[in-house]
Amino acid sequence: MGRMNLSLIRHCNVLAVNNTWELMPWATAMYAGDLAWWIKYGDRCTFAGERWTSDPEAARRYGLRLVQLRNSPGLCRIPGHVNSGGNSGYQAINLAYHFGAKRIILLGFDMHRKEGGHWHGEHDGMLSAPERHIEKWRAKMTILANDLREAGVIVINSTPGSALKCFRKQHLEDALH
Fold this sequence. Notes:
By secondary structure, the chain is α/β, with parallel strands linked by helices. It has one domain. It has helices at 35-41, 56-62, 88-98, 131-150, 172-175; strands at residues 15-17, 29-31, 50-53, 65-66, 68-70, 81-83, 103-106, 154-157, 168-169. The strands form three sheets. Strands 1-2-3-4 form a four-stranded parallel beta sheet. The chain has a three-stranded parallel beta sheet with strand order 7-8-9, covered by helices on one side.
């Protein structure tokens, strides 16, 4: 995270995922799909923008906007629904599509366990995905990438050191121009 100048995106529409809202409290919206995340962080999540989840219990408990989760491959084009992909980042990309995004820049999509885990730091006291799960997530992202291209959505991965190969990689400064 320290390798990116997040002030460059301060005036962009930003969808923060999980704890990233703490790094970008000015984001437009945030998404955390897991009830376990909301139980751990929900009471301290003071994010002022739109807060989204795919978990009905989390939506009820924390007053969140709800999107229905589906267990299908690729991009879910059904309004109000996202495909799982096994992780909140995948679901957030699908949600950005429903928000009407035609260009998506990925930050924090490292998709590996090197350097310990999540780009924003580990979730305190929560189980992090082992590398074998992350390998499966990368494979699912490839299907999503193909569907997004087909739908006319440009996705650029500006995450330094990302193991995700299915999206074009570009430095954040270049991707913004």
